[in-house]
Design brief:
251 residues; 7 helices; alpha/beta; globular; seven-stranded parallel sheet; Rossmann fold
């Protein structure tokens, strides 16, 4: 299937590593030009060079802190200045969850809570707010928010709250932007193998239906479809990429 992504411009926050990097590679292989955004300039530059050498498409790196509004404003201005348009936004800039030990309810502090919410929830919203007017002007766009299965499971207070909030934000954006040809979806990865996954995490028994951890490349495959014109009938919904949650029924 041709995903019709050749020549599209994709802005990916948190794109220098993990799921964000995997998404960038997958979209680049489909022919999209890639604007990578992350905080660490050294890692960002290395990732941009790696993907460009691997795929031959244009890959540019932009240093950004999505927890800061002015930084996001400058990011979008720079990407528009270089490429002229943004077709796809993938929000993936957040502290990874699911592989470390989360704080218990009585260990959650105001600082920890709002630091996480500012980056993952407000950071996603800030970036969407800056990108949406450009997508509206061109009459087409895709926004994919990377969230997580903590939205549907207890066990981490901050993780559950931030991921539920991203889901609610996604639906609100989808309802507001659908009339302009912009689809907005949320992807819930489960515990996912990335370059940062430790041997100890890999050795844990799998708790999903398929009996193994899902890889970041597998998550990226789903994101690529959602980012494409082929996904025109899907918006406002959550797509789970976790290998199947045992026993639970969602409808």
């Amino acid at each position: 299937m041709d995903l019709e992504l050749t020549g599209k411009v994709a802005l990916i926050t948190g794109g220098s590593r993990g799921i964000g990097k995997a998404v960038a590679i997958a979209l680049a292989k489909e022919g999209s030009n890639i604007a990578l955004a992350a905080r660490d300039p050294e890692r960002l530059g290395a990732t941009a060079r790696e993907i460009e050498a691997m795929t031959g498409v244009s890959v540019s790196g932009y240093v950004v802190d999505t927890g800061d509004e002015q930084s996001v404003i400058e990011l979008v201005r720079e990407v528009i200045g270089e490429y002229g348009h943004i077709d796809i936004l993938v929000n993936a800039a957040a502290k990874p969850g699911g592989q470390g030990t989360p704080p218990t309810y009585d260990q959650v502090t105001t600082e920890l809570f709002f630091e996480d919410m500012n980056v993952k929830v407000m950071g996603y919203l800030r970036t969407a707010q800056q990108v949406a007017p450009h997508m509206i002007n061109q009459g087409w766009g895709r926004i994919i928010n990377i969230s997580g299965l903590a939205a549907r499971q207890a066990g981490t207070v901050i993780g559950s709250v931030r991921n539920v909030a991203v889901s609610a934000m996604t639906k609100n954006l989808a309802d507001s932007l659908g009339q302009y040809g912009i689809n907005v979806t949320v992807v819930h990865p489960g515990n996912t193998v990335t370059e940062a996954t430790t041997p100890e995490v890999l050795a844990r028994p799998a708790t999903n239906v398929v009996g193994r951890m899902i890889t970041s490349a597998e998550v990226a495959d789903v994101v690529c479809f959602l980012a494409s014109p082929r996904s025109s009938s899907i918006t406002g919904d959550a797509i789970v990429v976790g290998g199947g949650v045992p026993r639970a029924i969602y409808y």
